[in-house]
Amino acid sequence: MRGSIFLKTMRDLQGQTLAWCLGLAAIAAINVLLFPTVQNFPDLISFLENMPPAFKAMIGDVQAMAQLEGFLRAKVFDAMPLLLSVFLVSQGSALIAGEIEQKSFDLLLARPVPRWRVVVAKFLAMATASLAMVLALTLGLMISVRFVENDITLRYLLVSSLNGLPLAWFFGGLALLGSCWLPRARQAALLAGGLVVASFVFETLRLISPRIRHLDEVSLFAQQKAGVTLDGVVHAGPIGLLLGLTGLVVVAAAIVLERKDLAA
User: Fold this and answer.
1) b/e 121-144 (16+ beta carbons within 10 angstroms → b)
2) Number of independent structural domains in the chain
3) pLDDT, tens digit, for every residue of 208-230?
4) Which in 6, 38, 180, 254 has the greatest CB count within 10 A?
5) How far apart are CA 184 and CA 186, in angstroms?
6) Which residues are CB-contacts of 186 (< 8 A; sequence separation ≥ 6)?
7) What is the residue range of 48's domain?
8) What residue ranges in the chain does DSSP mark as E strands?
9) Looking at the domain assignment, is residue 241 inside a domain?
10) Contact yes or no for 20/133 (Cβ under 8 A)
11) What does pTM read for this prediction?
């Protein structure tokens, strides 16, 4: 039964997943193929270096953008959690509340399956869909770098792409929690989406404000960036923290649904 819920949810998401896979692969290829053009403008790095400190802080390591690794980090990898969160929040918020609104959830619960398994199976399906998107992005990078003279490694492309998943899964888990708790999918989406925006705004303010720049330990996006360095070194601490937070919100969602009075 758990497997059938997983597969049904995957089938429900297959159209959106395919569209996102194609879109992310195209974004990856475009940015890689754009890099030689950027290299042909040596004054660009000087221009960025002369920008106000606040803008330079938002861009990151300006000198690193002269290399493909740094360019992709600034243009693709740092944006991945935000892009994936758009998909995960929109879909996660409807996984439970959407079915309740459509009156199809009672039919699901009429089968001999615990509610917590429904939550876990639906989250795993959503996470698998986002994993497919990241692999499509990596494939787009792998194919396009063949047309660019660069020694960037497959390992770097893969770990940097995968590093966007833990934070996106956390936001997706929050959307699922809201879907189990709130009566409407739209309310769950607004709640989780608001938290995504608030987290991103906080990270932006942290980067441009010297007074709070040291608060990287409480910034979710800063933790995500720390998971993989520009040199491709993987740090298990930040990744484990985000995965742990994701597990907690999924457990919370299962508990909320177990106690939810669907007759209300």
Assistant:
1) bbbbbbbebbebbbbbbbbbbbeb
2) 1
3) 888 898 898 999 999 999 999 98
4) 180
5) 5
6) 93
7) 2-259
8) none
9) yes
10) yes
11) 0.91
